[in-house]
């Protein structure tokens, strides 16, 4: 997968994840072109289209479009399943996800995506495993760290996680998120 975009029926970008290095100018151009192209298509049209040297796979859920660009040799149906699995994960976490959940909890939407996809490929297809990792990260964020400065290395983070009863650390991306709300100084 090259990238994933979430946008509204009005064309407002709600989430973007790029798995290839592109300039900001190129990202904006691609986003504008794809949003216009997808929104111009009729609802009964196929959810796959060839665009530039890529294939675009999209699906509309309520007021949001989930749009992915894949290489020509990649499977469109698997990409549709990846989109659907991401929506299922969002639904499980937020309880019937809506556009406002993405707007006001965008960092959690990105975190869920990062737990599910790694480098544009599904790293774990089990909803149960992904949700467990997210719950563990939420648990770690809720633990007050009185007098503890945020760990500076991954190994220090793993040690801190085990001290708080998390046997298997979630992911490196969970550790990298700022923990300023849960850290207090003595």
From TrEMBL:
Topological category with respect to the lipid bilayer: Peripheral membrane protein
InterPro entries recorded: AP1_sigma (IPR044733), AP_complex_ssu (IPR016635), AP_mu_sigma_su (IPR022775), Clathrin_sm-chain_CS (IPR000804), Longin-like_dom_sf (IPR011012)
Alphabetized GO MF terms: clathrin adaptor activity
Annotated Gene3D superfamilies: 3.30.450.60
Subcellular location: Cytoplasmic vesicle membrane; Golgi apparatus; Membrane, Clathrin-coated pit
Domain AP complex mu/sigma subunit span(s) in chain numbering: 1-139
Cellular compartments per GO CC: AP-1 adaptor complex; clathrin-coated pit
SUPFAM superfamilies: SNARE-like
Keyword terms of this UniProt record: Coated pit, Cytoplasmic vesicle, Golgi apparatus, Membrane, Protein transport, Transport
GO biological process, alphabetically ordered: intracellular protein transport
Keyword Protein transport: yes
The protein's assembly and partners: Adaptor protein complex 1 (AP-1) is a heterotetramer composed of two large adaptins (gamma-type subunit AP1G1 and beta-type subunit AP1B1), a medium adaptin (mu-type subunit AP1M1 or AP1M2) and a small adaptin (sigma-type subunit AP1S1 or AP1S2 or AP1S3). Binds to MUC1.
Family stated for the protein in its record: Belongs to the adaptor complexes small subunit family.
Function, as annotated: Subunit of clathrin-associated adaptor protein complex 1 that plays a role in protein sorting in the late-Golgi/trans-Golgi network (TGN) and/or endosomes. The AP complexes mediate both the recruitment of clathrin to membranes and the recognition of sorting signals within the cytosolic tails of transmembrane cargo molecules.
Name of the featured protein: AP-1 complex subunit sigma-2
Gene: LOC121845457
């Amino acid at each position: 997968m090259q990238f994933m975009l979430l946008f509204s029926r009005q064309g407002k970008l709600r989430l973007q994840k790029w798995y290839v290095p592109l300039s900001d100018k190129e990202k904006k151009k691609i986003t504008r072109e794809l949003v216009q192209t997808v929104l111009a298509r009729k609802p009964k049209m196929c959810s796959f289209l060839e665009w530039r040297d890529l294939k675009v796979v999209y699906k509309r859920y309520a007021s949001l479009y989930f749009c992915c660009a894949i290489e020509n040799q990649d499977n469109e149906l698997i990409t549709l399943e990846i989109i659907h699995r991401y929506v299922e994960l969002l639904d499980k976490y937020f309880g019937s996800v809506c556009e406002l959940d993405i707007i006001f909890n965008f960092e959690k939407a990105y975190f869920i995506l990062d737990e599910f996809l790694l480098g544009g490929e599904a790293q774990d297809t089990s909803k149960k495993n992904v949700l467990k990792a997210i719950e563990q990260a939420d648990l770690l964020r809720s633990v007050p760290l009185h007098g503890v400065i945020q760990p500076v290395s991954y190994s220090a983070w793993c040690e801190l996680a085990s001290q708080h009863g998390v046997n298997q650390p979630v992911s490196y991306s969970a550790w990298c998120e700022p923990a300023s709300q849960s850290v207090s100084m003595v």
